[in-house]
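FIELD: query
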Amino acid sequence: MSEQNKNMQNDLSQEQLVRENQELQNEVKYVESKLQILRKEYDKREDELAEVQKKLDQMQQDYLAVIHSSSWRVTAPLRAILGPVSRLLHRSRVMGLVRKVFSSLKHNGIAGTFKKIGGKLSYMKTAKKFQSRNVLTAQERAAQRAATFPKEVTFSILVPLYNTPKKYLIEMIESVLGQTYGGWELCLADGSTDDFAFVGELCKKYAEKDSRIKYQKLEKNMGIVGNSNECIKMATGNYIALFDHDDVLHEAALYEYMKVICERDADFIFSDEMTFSTDISKPIVMHFKADYAVDNLRANNYICHFTAFSRELLDQAGWFTYECEGSQDFDLVLRLTEKAKHIVHVPKILYFWRSHPGSVASSIDVKPYCITSGIKAVNNHLKRLGIEGEAVEAPKLTSIYKINYKLLEQPLISIIIPNRDHLQDLRRCITSVMKISTYKNIEILIVENGSSDPELQEYYAFLRGYDNVRILEWKEEFNYSKINNFAVESAKGKYLLFLNNDIEVITPNWIEEMLMYAQRDDVGAVGAKLYYPDRKIQHAGIILGMRGTAGHAHYHVQTKDGNLGFMGRLYYAQDFMAVTAACMLVSKEDFESVGGFDPEFKVAFNDVDFCLKLYERGKLNVFTPFAELYHYESVSRGSDKKGDNNLRFKEEEQRFKDRWKALIEKGDPYYNPNFSLQVATFMLNEHYYD
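FIELD: result
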């Protein structure tokens, strides 16, 4: 080997050592930053535990004072009698409550726990108020009964009967008889056993009084699928409605459905619903739903009750099938919505779902086979649409499904990160992307914008040694939209991943989880689940209209204590009007088709504005909770509430309101109007029915 070659080899070896040393130093600094965060969290929890211990000591002193008092000795015989009874009646409920309280104290502290308890009590109070207002006045009832419509519609209400308790049967039938719209027929197919003969006797008595009630005793019980299909055979109406034998309808249900059939040509309709136990005036859960959203539906049958659809649509989609028995309604809803032309959601509680032992309303665990058949229903749906993917049971929640769409290719993805100083944030971000991510076909474009930290320049020099990292220079004033648009011009990737410099990767396959949605032709932007370092939610989708503009869904919700969000919405992929560009994936083609980010939004609302432009072009914007990252949300720009920043923010806020006034007034289709737009998301709007 020549001396020149030896020198070159030595130089390369030396260069490699320098690089490896730098990488080790970066790893050390990355770990140190993580330890610093953990220490702060630990110190905070220690302070909270000390406060809890202080209160426990006081409670111990109070307890000792009570048991040594004369009144305690006098009441001993009474306690001996009542004690076992009390424990028998309340042990499981109280212990469950105690466990919840201690779990909340551990994760939320004292103040957070009291806030949660207050929130629960407030919800119960507001829910009762909602239900009290959800009752027609005599004037409303009379007006609805007298109303005329331009279309003639008869609803065939299908009710498969099987050993229905007498009380439930009577309440179910009476709720149909009480409908303010009279164009209906009640189709009752009875598969009850001989010891429930009163079911048939009662139904026949009702049928004698009202010819709209049709009753058929089946020769044998064919299960809910077979019995439901027998109901369909009885039906002569031009619309079909599904109704369970132990539930109750709101008296205006058919009237409200008739309105949207006439006004919006609806061929598939669903409403909000409420779960109750014995008293409808005391709600357990009020399920206020999004309008039709295909990704929400694939993840769970959120549509559920009360569904009605045209007979023509049913005949096109097909009847109930045994293949998905247990989730036969879900299977049918998927088939119907695939073919429906006008799906309409009525955002009113028109269905009351009774929770009792043995019902799915009480717990899905009562019928575990429903989960398997639900997965089958979704997989069949994907096959019918020619979509390569597979539904599996999602973590955390039963009856919720995660769709693993097959990646059709492994395209180059350009990760764009604007940066000014903030060396520690940037190093943590880049290191986590490179070390944790399993998707490797990436390029990283860092857009440098006026940094003054000399150590940062050293880090840039180190990063330039990577083939897939480039440092771009933006020498003008900060403008988030212009900076990212500028970077896109240099991006070589088929997809663009916009990323803040204060992001840290948690989920190794986060890119794959986002790409599986972004590759779909019907999807525009895809957002991830972002946490603050204490695991509170920073981003889980954006709601249009919050406080007049837009706001984060489930913002600041603490997830450490197992909070699943409203109806589990923190744990399944779903459609939103917008997602944050702090971590957003979109195809370069779609980005350019809407002109990228609007430079008029220098700092605020640029991502929401961008997503709404995609929405206007018929694209869905999707949030996936299966791509998880930390968002440290640094204060590099300063507060929007002071000085020039505040003036700029107000200008951008007004510009956004003016541009999207029509959409804001129309309302976010993925956020129910029963929820407030002024306080925390998914909180009931107490004045909606005023």
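FIELD: remark
The domain at 407-666 is CATH 3.90.550.10 (Spore Coat Polysaccharide Biosynthesis Protein SpsA; Chain A).
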